[in-house]
Amino acid sequence: MSDNFTLMIIPNRKSGVKKISVPKAFIRNVLIASVVIILVTLYVVYDYASIKRDRAELARLREQTKQQSQQFQDLAMKIDSFSDRMEELRQVDKNIRTLAYETNRDKKIPLGIGGPDNETKIKSLLNQDQQKIIVGMRKGIEKLNEDANEREKSFNELLGFLHEQKSILASTPSVWPVKGWVTSEFGVRESPFRSGTEFHKGLDISTRFGKEIVAPADGIVIISARDSQDGNFIRIDHGHGFTTAFCHLSRMAVKQGVRVKRGDIIGYVGDTGRSTGSHLHYSVFVNSIPVNPKKYLKSS
User: Using CA atoms, how far apart are residues 75 and 126, in angstroms rounded to an integer?
Assistant: First the structure.
């Protein structure tokens, strides 16, 4: 069997046939070399495409890392900013408590919850290892969470205190029940009905007959009745130990059990009971002890 391939070339009808003999080994080697070249070319093209793709991905990752690093720093700065704001809230809390303590020394008001510490600012860690920054941020967030819980507890306590103060203020008989002239002060006085002195438990306010009498504070009418001594009289319980009494009324405008607000009309000036003329006897009691109403009344 021949080891050559014979190629016959016929240029045209008139020319002779040309024969070219090519060894089979050469053809085989050419085919193998062609396949190898094609494969190497494909590999190079694929590798180049992979490298180009990897470079593009690396550039994208670098840009993403840069953006994330900037976001990381921004987040760290925000945590520090929130920490500073929380410290400002702590100082506001302290100032409110100090003011509340100064104006209510008889109340047990703690002067604050928590306090400033020497925690490390995260911005001071930005040039250090990223792991240290992460640890610092985690500690900062935990500290902010603790501070937020403390502030919530503290502000709820202050809110409760302020509600109580508002209730006490509403219950304090600070409004004159009627406009007129004080003809008899609180305390020891000459008795208008017999010789000697007596203790006067309130103020006698003289004014025209039938003038409106208003509640000096919020409360509940606990008595609306009549007797020989006080005539037509009303007693109001304002809570927090305060009660007030209004005597010698011509008539009452409220009944027992009615809730009244400061400024509501409760009756009218009269001359009933043991009285020497048209006036209102007004008394204030604190824990059932008579006190001078002027201690609570506004000067106006």
Answer: 11
Where helices occur in 22-113 by DSSP H, the ranges are: 24-103
Reported as half-sphere exposure (CB side, CA atoms, 13 A), residue 295 has a value of 13
Per-residue pLDDT in tens (0 to 9) along the chain, 300 residues? 567 767 676 676 666 667 777 777 777 888 888 889 999 888 888 888 888 888 888 888 888 777 777 777 777 777 777 777 777 777 877 777 777 666 665 555 554 545 445 455 555 555 556 666 677 777 777 777 888 888 778 878 877 777 777 788 888 898 999 999 999 999 888 877 677 788 889 999 999 999 999 999 999 999 999 999 999 999 999 998 999 999 999 999 999 999 999 999 999 999 999 888 899 999 999 999 999 999 988 754
9 residue type, one letter: I
Residue ranges of the domains in the chain?
1-171, 181-295
Contact between residue 210 and residue 231 where contact means Cβ atoms under 8 Å apart: no
CATH architecture of 181-295: Distorted Sandwich (2.70)
DSSP string, 10-35: --SSSSPPEEEEEEHHHHHHHHHHHH
